[in-house]
Design a protein that fits this description.
Blueprint: H1 2-13, E1 19-23, E2 29-33, E3 39-42, E4 49-52, H2 77-94, H3 119-126, H4 129-173, H5 177-194, H6 199-215, H7 222-239, E5 247-250, E6 255-267, E7 270-276, E8 286-292, E9 309-316, E10 319-323, E11 329-334, E12 336-339, H8 343-346, H9 356-368, H10 371-388
Parallel strand pairs: 8-11
Antiparallel strand pairs: 1-2, 3-4, 5-10, 6-7, 6-9, 7-8, 9-12, 10-11
Helix pairs in contact: 4-5, 5-6
Length: about 400
């Protein structure tokens, strides 16, 4: 016990020697002896302060018996360069000359001892035959699955299209709206899958769209919507009289079927059917409605005395825009619109149900307001003339 204590005391009295060699940022080579306590030192050349950590109180561990350190695969270029710089600084101080080590950015290419691998070799290592085989199998499975799914869709469309068209027209004749809507939807989807674009397919798609709109009509009448919008717009105008900017807010997305007269206005690449709302606003503020006309709308028909065109269409309101200059105006924009084509689907709504003359005028309007129906009418007239000959 006494012998062990004496060895411990001897170790405490004779700590392990350790010398710190540090190169300051100014180029001064510093050598400091480590002690058992932390030291605060400063560079004698530039005065930069740094800490010197204490020497470890534990003895240096011995490697196990038979241990051979592995050779370093690459020399540490950074340490070699630092040692070379320290040697140059020491030689400069010995010769009495001032040597300053310039801190330049390290070029990574100069620090690489291994040869640069060509791009083809790297590409070959990255995309091994095993990886390419796995990708090929996955791609083959995906393409095969898609082709199988598409083949089943085409078979389904070929089997259902004629039957769905027959059932849809039969249900429409019997005023079975839900059944007709479901059958026209199946027929329209089948026509899209098969890529049909003949007269029958176009009629089926239009019926499917019209019956779908009838199923999603707004429960609020259009005049009540205008009244509600006029009240909210009056509040906004009263609180925003000094603002010349446009105030835009979005409204609902409910569908409306309208039988309207309006002036055709061209603005940039769009054609709008503009009409004045039958709802007064505060003071001299105007309340206008603009309905976007589709590309197949015929706008060169003879107008009425007020230079207005007549259309039967389905639309839904998108936004309200207010302008204070040059005149105060609120405008309701209806951008999503399509023209109605079939009078038998309008009878479901009860339009002109008791007016035979009105039904005749409605059928004539539906055929003349769209270029598609006008072309169909010309084809029918040509076929009738050819049959008579």
């Amino acid at each position: 016990m006494v012998q062990i204590g004496s060895r411990k005391a001897e170790c405490e009295l004779k700590p392990r020697a350790d010398r710190l060699r540090k190169l300051c940022v100014c180029g001064e080579l510093l050598e400091v002896e480590r002690t058992r306590i932390t030291q605060k030192k400063s560079c004698p050349a530039c005065g930069r302060r740094f800490l010197v950590l204490p020497v470890s109180p534990f003895p240096t561990p011995r490697p196990p018996r038979g241990y051979v350190p592995p050779p370093s695969p690459m020399p540490d270029i950074t340490e070699a360069k630092t040692a070379r710089q320290m040697q140059e600084v020491a030689e400069g101080q010995t010769n009495g000359t001032s040597t300053t080590v310039a801190s330049a950015p390290i070029d990574l290419d100069t620090l690489t001892l291994a040869p640069k691998v060509p791009f083809r070799v790297r590409l070959r290592r990255q995309f091994t035959p095993l990886k390419l085989s796995i990708v090929g199998v996955i791609l083959l499975i995906g393409v095969s699955g898609y082709l199988y799914w598409w083949r089943t869709q085409v078979q389904w469309a070929q089997a259902n299209y004629p039957l769905a068209v027959e059932n849809a027209y039969a249900a429409l004749a019997e005023q079975q709206v839900d059944e007709a809507n479901a059958q026209f939807e199946i027929a329209s989807r089948s026509a899209i899958i098969l890529g049909l674009d003949d007269e029958q397919a176009q009629g089926v798609k239009q019926y499917a769209r019209e019956l779908d709109v009838l199923d999603r009509l707004s429960s609020q009448p259009f005049p009540e919507l205008l009244t509600e919008l006029s009240e909210s717009s009056m509040e906004l105008v009263a609180g925003d009289e000094q603002n010349d900017q446009q105030s835009v807010f979005y409204w609902g997305k409910d569908w409306y079927v309208l039988d309207v007269w309006g002036k055709v206005v061209k603005e940039e690449e769009n054609r709008w059917l503009e009409l004045e709302a039958p709802v007064p606003l505060k003071g001299s503020t105007e309340f206008m409605i603009r309905i976007n006309l589709p590309n197949d709308a015929v706008t060169d028909r003879p107008p009425n005395a007020l230079n207005q065109q007549h259309f039967v269409l389905a639309t839904r309101c998108d936004r309200m825009v207010s302008k204070t200059k040059p005149t105060a105006r609120w405008t309701l924009y209806c951008e999503e619109t399509f023209l109605w084509e079939h009078d038998d689907s309008l009878r479901i709504l009860g339009l002109y149900a008791d007016d035979e003359e009105g039904q005749v005028e409605l059928a004539k309007l539906l055929k003349n307001q769209s270029t598609l129906t006008a072309e169909q009418k010309e084809t029918e007239q040509a076929d009738a003339a050819g049959g008579e000959l």
